[in-house]
Structure prediction request, 382 residues.
Amino acid sequence: MNLRGNRFSNTLLSATNKTAHVNENNVKTKSTKVNGRSRSGDPPLRDVTNQVSKNTQATKVTKQKSSKGECTKRPATALGQNEEKRKTKNKDKTKKRRKSSDPMEVIRDEEPKNWENIDLHDADDPQSVVEYVDDIYEFMMKKELENRPSAKYMNEQTDINEKMRAILVDWLVEVHRMFKLLPETLFLTVNIVDRFLGLEKVTRDKLQLVGITAMLIASKFEEIYAPECNDFVYVSDGAYTKEQILMTEKELLNALDFNLTGPSPLHFLRRYSKAAGSDYTLHTLCKYLIELMLIDVKLLKYPPSQIAAGSVYIARLMTNETPLWTPTLEHYSSYSEVDVRTCAVDMNELLKKAQKSSLKAIKKKYALPKYGEVSNLPIVDF
Prediction:
């Protein structure tokens, strides 16, 4: 407060001195004082300084009275009412923000809370980002609706069909396993293939080229050490050259407008498995189910989040977990049991067909001891 007062006084003295200097040089008139005032009626400098000092002291006294509980009444003007409303709104926003950002705070809703807070014990883990995790998955559920390939895009293709696509995906699973790539890479690869086939017509002799190029792009996006272009020339048994792969890469990226980001069922599954309290076997069984759904193009009618929810439902049924769908799962997935069951029925039908299908790459993969041999678990009907 003193510093601001000194700046104000110095500025006032400087401005007064400049004015006096200009008047002395240009006008050269003498100011006669009458009763302590000049002809212009302005008070002398010392009176102005004294008045500023009195105002400063009055402000201090007012603050002291306010701190003791003595408050002055403010006239109820329109401006004052608007400020009060603005303060009230800011307080309400702050309360809502604290409720949504603090996972340890007990939120009291009008309806009784019958679901479990799965982030309660991870509040001290920075990698769990419990303050933002709900917002992240809410954004992902909005993002999954963008750039979704149509389940009927094969109707527009003239030289390839659903069976050819299924063979391609089954082969890509083997290539993915041979290169020891991340699971996200496989899902992004199939997503790129489906989106490109939904936009462009492809001949059967170029379908495999589209597949390996999509995996090359997905590897660059997801992997730390991505396979080189020559590696994909090798796995295709020399059917395509390096130049062909690079040219196809340009075609795919331009067709997709370089938009590669998007959530997969695997991203949602991690959240839902946590909500279900799944162990390693149950979570691995869910991973087997969502990878198996990549084979059938008809399953594209369901969004990735619903595919993940359906896999949890079937896995809990196959491992005799009860209840099949809990209030906690419904809260974090935003799907009711009716919605999940609709998707789970179609997924279970595909699971039955996979037992007799000649496309065995995914089944063999999850029959290994590394994955708990979950593909050998008996199938159930519901």
